[in-house]
Amino acid sequence: MTQETVSPRGGSQAVRAARREEAALLGEVLADAFAEDPVFAWLIPPQLRGRDNRLRTFFTSMSRGYLRRGKPCYLTGDASAAALWAAPGAWAMPLSQMILEAAPSGLAFRRRLLRALRTQLQIERLHAGQSPPHWYLGYLGTRRDRQGQGLGTQMLREVLAGLDADGVPAYLESSNERNLPLYERNGFRVVGELQALGHGPTIWRMWREPQPGT
After folding, report:
1. Residue 87 CB: number of other CB atoms within 10 A?
2. Which pTM does this prediction carry?
3. For residue 43, which of 162, 196, 178 has the smallest C-alpha distance?
4. What is the mean pLDDT of each run of 10 residues along the chain (214 residues)?
5. Quick one: CA torsion of 140, 165, 67, 172, rounded to 10 degrees?
6. What is the three-class DSSP state of 206?
7. Which domains does the chain have, with CATH numbers?
8. Is 209 helix (H, G, I), strand (E, B) or coil?
């Protein structure tokens, strides 16, 4: 799927499928996008030395895992925004993938690795009970200097238009309250909240029914 729109800075802005060799580029975009995210600030505090590299290590590893397993990943033409999606039944990380991601996760989270793993398990347990079958938005982010220019909506529509046509719902977790209006404008609604490990930041669980004719 490819979508052409006019960007706020002028010119044509395309959304395209990321290539398998572009894991590092996806990781760079998402690391910048999530640099001020409350959950990642809790897992990798801003004052830590080498934090930017640690965020890139994590998101590059996640992107590589998505691409390796053939999950749909997208970039804008100028690599200002990125999104990682999973088709119905493909969102859970198998043991083999966990083993491959163990070293990069350790480098990224270090002493907070157990906290990160426990938080992920908490999120996945709730996700596992979500039905019917649905597409899952693992990560969506826009570089900080391009936020507020409509690229998030553009990235969402790249996939949501097809889901509406096929009559398939979608699900995501938002770790930043300021992003809730973006998702709500695009048809998602909050179906639950959780506090990471009972004392960390709030994470919002969001669901979207297909919207034929939109």
Report:
1. 14
2. 0.89
3. 196
4. 35 79 98 97 95 96 94 95 94 69 86 93 89 95 93 93 96 96 97 95 97 75
5. 40
6. strand
7. 3-208 (3.40.630.30)
8. coil
The sign one gets for the Cα dihedral 179, 117, 46, 74 is negative
The kind and range of the H/E element at 17 are strand 12-17
CA triple 140-144-147, angle to 5 deg: 70
How far apart (Å, rounded) are the C-alpha atoms in residues 128 and 60? 25
Torsion sign, CA atoms 105, 106, 111, 115: positive
With DSSP H G I counted as helix, E B as strand and the rest as coil, what are the percentages for the chain, rounded to 5? Answer: 50, 20, 30
From the list 85, 98, 71, 72, the residue with the least C-alpha distance to 16 is 72
**CA distances (Å), 174 to each of 12, 21, 91, in order?**
29, 27, 16
The torsion angles phi and psi of 133, rounded to 5 degrees, stand at -50, 140
The CA distance from 9 to 172, in Å, is 29
